[in-house]
Structures
1.
Amino acid sequence: MDKLILIGAGGHSKVIQDIANASNEFETFAVVDDAIDGTNQTDGIIYANTSFIDSLQVEHFKFCIAIGNNATRREIFATLGIPIEQYAVLIHPTAVVSKSAEIGNGTVVMPNAVVNADSIIGKHCIVNTAAVVEHDNRMEDYVHISPNVTLSGIVSIGEGTHVGSGATVIPGKIIGCWCTIGAGAVVVGNIGKHVTAAGVPAKKIVKN
Ligand SMILES: CC(=O)SCCNC(=O)CCNC(=O)[C@H](O)C(C)(C)COP(=O)(O)OP(=O)(O)OC[C@H]1O[C@@H](n2cnc3c(N)ncnc32)[C@H](O)[C@@H]1OP(=O)(O)O
């Protein structure tokens, strides 16, 4: 079993620990976070400040940036400098992932999610609980697909975009990078970069 180190100790990290426990492929060795002072051990897991990683030979461990915020995952990956091959792909045993799908290092696929044929998912993405990523999707790095989202066939999602809980994207649509799609939205047209869109059909939200 690979020894797993989770970076981040919040709610998202707890769900990832459950995935690691359920997978029989990983054992959680440590949870590190900038908010933890010093080092302690609970139930055989080390809880430590992020600087704990400096004392380790990273090639002996697998890592996961267990933080929900997409921009923060990108920043931490860049700051730590741990090679991408050391980041785990974590897939809950109840998730269904096509053999022809590709999933990048650092990505987590949560319980009951589905990733269908020939979809390509980037690095450090989150396919959250019961999300459906249909066939031939393209998802760049640092994307978060929230619980119960449906991405229909041949959807493309740009880097860092967050699709909110229960949203649906109809087939063939393209959503640019660093967008936020509101919970429950139905995306029926392409969406540009850095856009927040919500509603049915999804429309850009402009803040005054
Ligand atoms: C396990 C997990 O928890 S994973 C995390 C999943 N997280 C999510 O799904 C969150 C998704 N985020 C949202 O839906 C947010 O409401 C956003 C991003 C769409 C908008 O957030 P903000 O920018 O803070 O906008 P704000 O709350 O001020 O609302 C702006 C307007 O949009 C409306 N609005 C906000 N969210 C939505 C939505 N999902 N659908 C329709 N309209 C919405 C508001 O009613 C408001 O309308 P008004 O100007 O007429 O009063």
2.
Amino acid sequence: MYIIEGQDISVRAGKSRILEVKRVGLEEGKVFSVIGPNGSGKSTLLRVMALLQNPDDGCVYFRGERVLPRDRIRIRRRMAVVFQEPLLLDATVEENIVTGLRIRGVDAASARRRAGFWLERFKVAHLSDRWARALSGGEAQRVSLARAFALEPEVLFLDEPFANLDAPTREALLLELSDVLHSTGVTTFFVSHDFKEVAFLADRTMALMEGLPVQEAPPQRILDYPACEKLARFVGIENIWPAKILEERLETLIADIKGLTMVVKKAGDYEYERCSSVGDEVKIALRGDKINFIPLDACSNNLEIGCCQDGSIKQNCWNGRVKSLFAFGNVIRMTVDCGIDVNISVPAQFMNAFKIGDNISLYFSIDSPIILKK
Ligand SMILES: Nc1ncnc2c1ncn2[C@@H]1O[C@H](COP(=O)(O)OP(=O)(O)OP(=O)(O)O)[C@@H](O)[C@H]1O
């Protein structure tokens, strides 16, 4: 049974749909995340599940019981929410934590003890007498997290808590939060548009696009096998090409991409079988970091590399010419013209190994391409 569950949730603004989610549920002790681009409805779903906003249709169940309007405040006190902008009271750091506990009936001495413990845990105990509104963004978010955990909630809601923090602060806080989530085992609903955060923290992820769930799975699975083109782009897959399935051969599908042949492994634990019929027009996605390269014409485009004795093919091989190169942090983004543009990510040490115009052979496993659902 889910600790909290939403059914047939629909939120509209005038005539336009903001959110339409048939079912969403949080398992006890797990971290459930919602990912999606700006405006996809993540925060709206969080507000509905945290009982901060009524949906236009649908209902929320808490521990199996439908939440009625008269129950909302009582149940909300069993939850805690941390927002992107820390909503701290105009008071000292300690008072910010103690006040919430006192409202929930905790005696003054216990409230101070709990505040001390959680401020220590989030490494801000030294700030307890400071004025909360004078803290830096990172300090304020640590205090918000300490305040939320001090409430000992049954469900914790986190709405992009790291979005405003610089990269080192975000990374440090992410590690600390992960540690606290594991040690407390608190059920968590985590909203983010950053897949790295989600992959690090979450057990399960719902991807939202324009208010609709497009996939729900463990984060790594979404990263490896996104369900649709928009999601593939959102998770950063650099190559998405229209293709046509030409034939099935042994355990593979042979696809044509503007005259180039690609072999894709047919069997797999992801759902593209329904796209696999000969003659289908599909989209094929391929991550740039799954593509290897040799700086010479080591093979030709007829896939001879990786061809086994039984006639099966383990690798694709395409030849092309380097069209553009640019450094992006510690990787190089290279586009190779193979008849179609192929974007690949190359470790920075190869920066001087190629120049624009060089001939290059690309090869990638038949496991790497993903046939996307339409
Ligand atoms: N009260 C409202 N009236 C009209 N439109 C709204 C209202 N609240 C939200 N929206 C719209 O609904 C959509 C979803 O908003 P929401 O904040 O849930 O998205 P989000 O995925 O959390 O976005 P972000 O990542 O930018 O925070 C947006 O297009 C937003 O403009």
